Amino acid sequence: MNNDKNFWLTLPRPIMAQAPMANVTDAAFRRMFAECGKPDVFWTEFVSVEGLLSRGREKLLTDLWFDKDNRAERPIVAQIFGGKPEQFEEVGPLIQKLGFDGIDINTGCPDRGVEKSGGGASLIKDPARAKEIIRALKRGAGGLPVSVKTRLGYKSMDEMEEWLTALLEEDLAALTVHLRTRAEMSDVDAHWELAPKIVALRDRITPQTVLLGNGDVRSLEDGRAKAAESGMDGVMVGSGIFGNPWFFSGRTPGIRERLERLVTHTELFEKLYRSDNPKTIGQDGRLKNFDVMKKHYKSYTSAHDDGQGGFDGAKELRMRLMDAENAAEVRKIVLDFLDKP
Fold first, then answer.
1. Which residue would you say has higher pLDDT here, 250 or 309?
2. At residue 96, does pLDDT exceed 70?
3. In CA terms, which of 59, 150, 229, 296 is 20 to 30 Å from 278?
4. Burial degree of 135 (CB within 10 A; 0-12, 13-18, 19+)
5. Mind listing the pLDDT tens digit for each residue in 54-79?
6. How do residues 222-234 score in pLDDT, each as one tens digit?
7. 39-310-301 Cα angle (round to 5)
8. What is the layout of strands, in order, in the sheet containing 15-18?
9. 109 is catalytic
């Protein structure tokens, strides 16, 4: 690996990373964090390598949008998935050309469609092919650091050592381990008690690989504590950042600031993906349905500055927001709520 391009070596410990999530961690979402309290590493949504090599590439490229000139949005890692090594090698130069700081392979997603394509968590059952994919992407990545996000195993934690050993043998720049199996989904507590064993495995095989733990990180303080107690180099945060772009700053804003940020987020989302954006293509000229934005409203309106969740009128506000059809309606609904006696 070209260490001159390996940003992982420059990050402070413990590393705080934002998890990649489909139809969540888009350009508008990440911009909120860049403004309110940035993580040490950003991730894109995950994108199909097969799709990036198809005639539908242009639409998929919107999932990889980021502001190359904004240092607050860096370092940023493009996450990709698929099952064919040759496609990863072919996609590598495209990711490099787009200006990303690193490339991550998803080997943990439990979505059936993703698994059917040979990607995501299905690779846990085929370590040899996973290794081929890593090597192929390295050949095509032009020296960009290659990392992997995965789970402890597919059906059983008994698979953990064999599976993680296979990955670590490929000298990854970083490895993120969601501390559950594919079978467990998110139905059980993350197995942070196993993190020291993973650290010991890493130290024995490839000490230079940065190791992140993922699962049940509730706050910035909790993330720092989990990293310290486990020996991990850092943590990746997923569900904890919904509706909370202040997560990595450690701040807890009040209701007004939270709702005003909801409006700002909505307006940026609409600006980026609306029909009159010159980059926009696709059905009805809209790259992302406005309903994608609505999944954030429950989170923005649930957290209160006392940390207990909810506030007077929150349920009714959410109901009105879910019926909104555009950013202008969202702004009016929120301002009416904030201005009422």
1. 250
2. yes
3. 296
4. middle
5. 988 888 899 999 988 889 999 999 99
6. 999 999 999 999 9
7. 55
8. 15-18, 234-237, 210-214, 174-178, 146-151, 102-107, 76-81, 42-48
9. yes
**In residues, how long is the chain?**
341
Q: How many Å apart are CA 302 and CA 125, to the nearest integer?
A: 39
The single-letter code of the amino acid at 111 is: D
Angle (nearest 5°) at CA 102 between 98 and 104: 110
pTM of the model: 0.93
**Long-range contacts formed by 168-172: CB under 8 A, 24+ apart:** 168/201, 168/202, 168/205, 168/206, 168/209, 169/131, 169/205, 169/206, 170/131, 170/134, 170/135, 171/1, 171/206, 171/208, 171/209, 172/134, 172/146, 172/147, 172/148, 172/206, 172/209
3-state secondary structure of 86: helix
Do residues 133 and 105 make contact, with C-beta atoms less than 8 angstroms apart?
yes
pLDDT of residue 227: 98
Q: What stretch of H or E contains 229?
A: helix 220-230
Label residue 113 by pLDDT band (50, 70, 90). very high
User: Which of 32, 34, 105, 109 is labelled catalytic?
Assistant: 109
Q: What is the CA radius of gyration of the chain?
A: 20
Check if the beta carbon of residue 66 is closer than 8 Å to that of residue 73: yes
- Give 196-209 pLDDT, tens digit per residue: 999 999 999 999 99
pLDDT at residue 2, rounded to an integer: 58
